[in-house]
Specification:
By secondary structure, the protein is an alpha/beta fold. Helices cover 30% and strands 25% of the residues.
Length: 87
């Protein structure tokens, strides 16, 4: 049995949302997807109809926690901040 039926590399956020809406069954977003793929290979997650890859979308390649969010406030009090940028 295949772990997924369709793979779609989204060009932008709108494209990703359209691919999710068009999926005939369960769809999952991936950005690298190693955890999800490993879980499916080991039977801890059921196969899906569509994988929508968002790794090429510039807005999805960066995560920042802004002041005012509860996580940012907690981290600021500890003297650290969270910033991640995927390659």
């Amino acid at each position: 049995m295949a772990l997924w039926e369709n793979y779609y590399l989204a060009r932008d956020i709108s494209d990703a949302l359209q691919a999710l809406a068009a999926a005939k069954g369960e769809a999952r977003l991936i950005a690298g997807g190693t955890d999800l793929l490993l879980e499916m290979q080991h039977g801890r997650h059921t196969p899906v109809d569509t994988l929508v890859d968002v790794s090429s979308i510039p807005e999805m390649r960066r995560l920042e926690i802004q002041p005012g969010s509860s996580n940012a406030d907690e981290r600021d009090q500890q003297g650290s901040s969270m910033f991640m940028c995927a390659a």
